[in-house]
Amino acid sequence: MTRRGAFRVSVAKDYLVFASAHFITFAGHRCEGLHGHNYRASVTVEGALDQEAWFVYDFTILKRVMKGLCDEIDHKVLLPLQNPKVQVVEDGDMVTVAYEGKPRYVFPRRDCALLPIPNTTVEMLAQMLTERLHAELQTMGAKGLTAIEMEVEENFGQSAVYRVALP
Ligand SMILES: [Zn+2]
Fold first, then answer.
1. Phi/psi class of residue 28: alpha, beta or left (left: φ > 0; alpha: ψ in -120 to 50)?
2. Is residue 75 among the annotated active site residues?
3. 110: CA distance to ligand 1 center in Å?
4. How far does the centroid of ligand 1 lie from the alpha carbon of residue 22, in Å?
5. Does the active-site annotation cover 149?
6. How far, in Å, from the CA of 159 to the mean position of ligand 1?
7. Cβ atoms 111, 77 nearer than 8 A
8. Could you give the CA distance from residue 133 to residue 1 in angstroms, rounded to a whole number?
9. CA 156 to CA 26: how far, in whole Å?
10. DSSP assignment of 88-122
11. Which residue among 32, 72, 75, 90 is the active-site one?
12. Do residues 129 and 139 make contact, with C-beta atoms less than 8 angstroms apart?
């Protein structure tokens, strides 16, 4: 059977959620107050068929990895480590957060997710989850994957999608 079509598989489950607090900064001097979302992630993976199993990737593994990534940031305060206007400092078992040099919050360290992103927008969360997923799949020896597309929804009908072609 010779066909020229391409395959992709998607996982969008009710348990791929993270209920987290955040705030984002805008251009200029505007910064949101702390609030939360019930975020939802879904992912599509594109690639060649596994020649023994005839699938792009094992759903069981994909679901488990995605659940793990969501659990890492579930029930946390999401804090950006690369935002020049937001100073996040670990101080023992506490984290202090300042905005443009003015102290704003103190959180228990265990309740925070310190993230290597410049702003906790759904765009940056989608990109971060894509990179985390790609790293996990590589560690597990995934082969033949050509692209990952991640959607993160922060509210009904309000989401960002990040897609990356894999080398
Ligand atoms: Zn928000």
1. left
2. yes
3. 21
4. 6
5. no
6. 11
7. yes
8. 32
9. 22
10. EEEETTEEEEEETTEEEEEEEGGGEEEESSSS--H
11. 75
12. no
Tokens of 25: 């900064």
Per-residue pLDDT tens digits for 11-65:
999 999 999 999 999 999 999 999 999 999 999 999 999 999 999 999 999 999 9
Backbone angles phi, psi at 20, to 5 degrees: -140, 155
Asked if 40 contacts 152 with a C-beta cutoff of 8 angstroms, the reply is yes
Cα 57 to averaged position of ligand 1 atoms, centre (Å): 33
Q: Of 46, 151, 153, 154, which residue is the catalytic one?
A: 154
CA distance 28 to 30: 6
Beta bridge partner(s), residue 105 = 97
pTM of the predicted model as reported, rounded to 2 decimal places: 0.96
* Residues paired with residue 29 on neighbouring β-strands, in sequence order: none
